[in-house]
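Progress note, sequence design subtask.
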């Protein structure tokens, strides 16, 4: 008897969005922790540009239809993580 784990679209999307937010948060909070707020603000600006390029160019060009989600939602979750990293 084999068991399979079924991942619904909702679980897949929730996990992806949590990962986008955590990536932004970890990037900014660690830079702020070790290098200060000024460095974190620079990293936030660069992270915003990188997230925009990744979501609106790279994913649109190279991801398959099956794995591609909402570019705007993915980008906004990066921004949620970046802002949370700056604030907390």
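Output:
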């Amino acid at each position: 008897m084999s068991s399979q784990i079924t991942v619904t679209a909702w679980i897949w999307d929730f996990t992806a969005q949590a990962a986008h937010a955590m990536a932004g948060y970890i990037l900014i909070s660690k830079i702020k922790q070790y290098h200060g707020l000024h460095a974190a603000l620079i990293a936030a600006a660069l992270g915003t540009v990188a997230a925009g390029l990744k979501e609106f160019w790279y994913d649109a060009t190279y991801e398959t239809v099956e794995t591609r989600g909402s570019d705007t939602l993915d980008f906004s979750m990066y921004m949620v993580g970046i802002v949370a990293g700056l604030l907390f």
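Residues 25 and 74 are 14 Å apart (CA to CA). Work on this subtask will continue into the next period as scheduled.
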